[in-house]
């Protein structure tokens, strides 16, 4: 007879520890199942889909997140859901897309780190339900520093604001912050990136998301630009009015400085003289104090406080 | 639109039920998978494949009361498939051998005992022992899960216990 009883063996069996990767394996299985079901449903529903797509509406898609918070955490590891609408093509640093919607909430932000790239997924919902399409949006790319400014039409709130801090973990994203927008039909936010990165943005639908695929590229020769900018202001209505006024005449960009105040860039130049000449010419029109700041691609704007408006 | 929304709702509920089922059984699935394949990587593969198979066939499951039995059956079938695919002697994990002598050595030793006991059994006998004694399933459920008559399960159990040469200290 063995020296073990069945109870001993059972105890030992129950000591088999489930590794942390088990949740990941489960979510991979579920995601494969989802994709499979989707492909099946799609071939069946193609006719219906053509009709439905003509109707403007928001479809239900909440998924499994309601099951339990611990399980929801493991969802972060799953591959991206939805269908690709387009990979954004930038013309003069701008790209647009999406469908006109209202009541959008920029509801989630997720980051997936891989060895050679990161994916940042911005999710949208409407009435707490995943949105079918991204609301009509515009993304503007600019340098010195490297930023992407997102304008999401029809967006009323950013509940993902709390989640913005997960990007502190990112090796490519230096900062992300919302902008004040007087026009309440849209929401804006800025993503500040390191200089030597490539970014590709993909628009997805069903459910709606924007995916930033960020990878490292070889750093170029460090150069300096001379940027014509305003002083630094507190975030608020007065600053909003100033931006709105300036944006009528200039290709403005709002940035946060190294002291968490906000400023507006008007234009950048290769030489200090050209920047100063621009100021001399435009200071009356702009009707606000302008200054020249020398910036490299990785520099944050500096804090030059304004005394009148703050 | 309304039809589509309802369909979505139904799919959602189906998915939520399935996720709840998987969440409840996640440790059990891993333990059973591991008992068959004996290494972490394969066990994780078994879990993933079983969840995938379960997800796509959950809507065909008629009796929700047997969902758990059904899920475990998938795990066991996938584990057997993987064993057949690998067709190799199942090694003990290196990490288990390496940590012998550490403070965890008792656990390691004991788990080796479980493996040694199970090694004496064929696949079918092993399934019966794991399900009946380790996972505390009723004989009727074991029979259902393995799709065999209850009389076959009983005789398998008897044979397995004999092979394992262990003392039964509880009344079954």
CATH topology (fold) name of one domain in chain B = Rna Polymerase Sigma Factor, Chain: A
The SS-based structural class of chain B is mainly alpha
Number of distinct beta strands of chain B? 0
The CATH architecture category of one domain in chain B equals Orthogonal Bundle
* Helical content class of chain B: over 70%
Can you tell me the CATH superfamily of one domain in chain B?
RNA polymerase sigma factor, region 2, helix turn helix motif
Q: What proportion strand of chain B?
A: under 5%
Mean pLDDT of chain B equals 77
Strand content of chain A: 25-35%
CATH topology of the largest domain in chain A: the name is Immunoglobulin-like
CATH architecture of the largest domain in chain A: Sandwich
Q: What overall form of chain B do the CA principal axes indicate?
A: globular
Helix count of chain B? 9
> Which bin fits the share of residues in helices of chain A?
10-25%
Spatial separation of the terminal alpha carbons of chain A: 87 Å
Task: Kindly provide the radius of gyration of chain B, computed on alpha-carbon positions and rounded to a whole number of angstroms.
Answer: 18 Å
Rounded average pLDDT of chain A: 82
CATH class of one domain in chain B: Mainly Alpha
Uncertain runs of chain B with pLDDT below 50, 5 residues or more? 1-7, 94-110
- The termini of chain B sit apart by 56 Å
Q: Give the count of structural domains of chain A.
A: 2
Describe the structure.
- The complex is a heterodimer of chains A (310) and B (172).
- Chain A has 5 helices and 16 strands.
- Chain A has 310 residues and is α+β, with helices and mostly antiparallel strands.
- Helix content of chain A is 25%, strand content 34%.
- By secondary structure, chain B is mainly alpha-helical.
- Chain B has a domain at 1-89: Orthogonal Bundle (Rna Polymerase Sigma Factor, Chain: A).
- Chain B has helices at 2-24, 26-37, 40-57, 67-86, 94-98, 105-119, 123-134, 139-146, 150-164.
- The radius of gyration of chain B is 18 Å and the shape is globular.
- Chain B contains 9 helices and no strands.
- The interface between A and B is large, with 45 and 47 residues.
